[in-house]
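User: Could you check the structure of this?
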Amino acid sequence: MESNDPKAPAPLFAESTPLGLLGLAVGCAALTPIAFGAALTPPALETAAMFCLLFGGGGQFLAGVMGLANKNLLGGTLFTTFSFNWVMNWWTLHELAAGRVPDGAVVLAVDVCFLVIFVVLTCAFGFLSKILVLFLLDIDLLYALRIARATLHAAFLGPLVGVCTVALALIALWIAFAMLVNVTAGRSVFALPGPLFNR
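Assistant: Sure, the predicted structure tokens are below.
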């Protein structure tokens, strides 16, 4: 999201957050049938893989680089880092479609690292907006469920990961629509609550 600091330099690009959020929502939509076990054939995995690569990886990478160029350290860092995770989603799905399973121990270690990252970022985004905290809390829960499913070998947690994935897409769409439509309409069509924490 854009800085409210009047001394901040003029951005090089338009606000890139909606682009990153729309890419994330499309990536989540592609993963939803897989998370619920409804699309596990090689063609389904390959199809989802391409959406993850183009929209999740490409869209978020572009949004992140543009955000960093605009001096948006928090949003730019989040989108750029997460874009590489979407590329990993592409690779994982591609490998699964070919019958090759990525190493579970490595994936688990990275998931734990991501959970730590997102918990800290959840607190940081509390200084910007309550809905961004909700967005990050959903990601925290998603990674916690992934870790629990891997460590406890609890397949029944899969649908809960699916629910978090759907919720993440919906929250991302709401924020993106608010940033796009509210500016265009000149009024608050999609509500964006204020910060959770005072600076």
